[in-house]
Amino acid sequence: MSVMIITGASRGIGAATAKLAAARGYAVAINYVSNREAAEQVVSDIESAGGRALAVQADMAHEADIVRLFETVDRELGTLDVLVNNAGVIDRIARLDEMSAERIERMMRINITGPFLCAREAVKRMSTRHGGKGGAIVNISSAAAHRGGAGEYVDYAASKGAIDTFTEGLAKEVAAEGIRVNTVRPGVVHTEIHASGGNPDKPEKSSQAIPMGRAGEPDEIAHGILWLAGGEASFATGACLDIDGGV
User: Fold this and answer.
1) Do β-strands 27-32 and 80-85 pair in parallel, antiparallel, or remain unpaired?
2) Cα gap 236→240, rounded to integer Å
3) Domains of the chain (ranges plus CATH)?
4) pLDDT for the residue 45
5) Cα–Cα distance for residue pair 235/19, rounded to 1 Å
6) Which residues does the annotated region (Disordered) include (predicted)?
7) What are 185's strand-pairing partners?
8) What is the pLDDT of residues 19-48, one digit of tens each?
9) Predicted TM-score of the model (pTM)
10) Cα separations (Å) of 15 from 22, 45, 166, 177?
11) Largest CA-CA distance found in the chain, in angstroms, rounded
């Protein structure tokens, strides 16, 4: 059974990806930072459908937590095949001249440093250079990376732009070692992340600016992630898949 780690998988896109991955035969590690109940519910849903899953608490802001996440998966699920770098945060709508250094540092620590460290741990396990059998990394970026987030959260947009660049560079770095690295760039999706940024109505408000006339659903993003993770995308690396309704 192939093994997948999904960071930030207790809700939204991460939870949808976990359930779809389990339905396709993956043993899935459901990472969460604080909402244990939600993570355990995802595990329960997967197990009820006959799949295998494990909830693992780890804060993407702390290296020790990330290392422990991977070590737990090594011990409990086995050899890692796929990492989905999904965990991320936004903040309250603000202009740059209203942002504190603490806000910016938190954004970059969780949205950039966390995925870097997770990918580092994945490469150590997957790379043929380290005795691994290869694998796939799928980074979750955002349409904000190429739109800039002006007047809302340029810090978030910049953090996702960094992930796009990271994907391209790491893909080239490990392509000959059996690892594919790609990005999915969702547009506005119906998830709880908007409420955490104080803008719960964003999907509805954004609909008129989306060519398809609506926000996306987590399952629609999950299908793109699973495609890039699997064998059907065997010649894709360094790619950026936009799933954003045409923005």
Assistant:
1) unpaired
2) 10
3) 3-243 (3.40.50.720)
4) 98
5) 25
6) 192-215
7) 242
8) 999 999 999 999 999 999 999 999 999 999
9) 0.94
10) 11, 10, 24, 29
11) 51
